[in-house]
Specification:
PyrdxlP-dep_Trfase; mainly alpha; PyrdxlP-dep_Trfase_small; 1 helix; single chain
């Protein structure tokens, strides 16, 4: 969807509160460990 230069990258949207962003990153960190 974002062309060849976007392959292998993660696109994020920060349209929520900072608290929700922190929760999301905590969940992603736990997933990738």
């Amino acid at each position: 969807a974002f062309g060849p230069t976007g392959q292998g990258h993660l696109r994020l949207s920060f349209c929520v509160s900072q608290e929700e962003i922190h929760k999301a990153f905590d969940r992603m960190e736990a997933y990738f460990k």
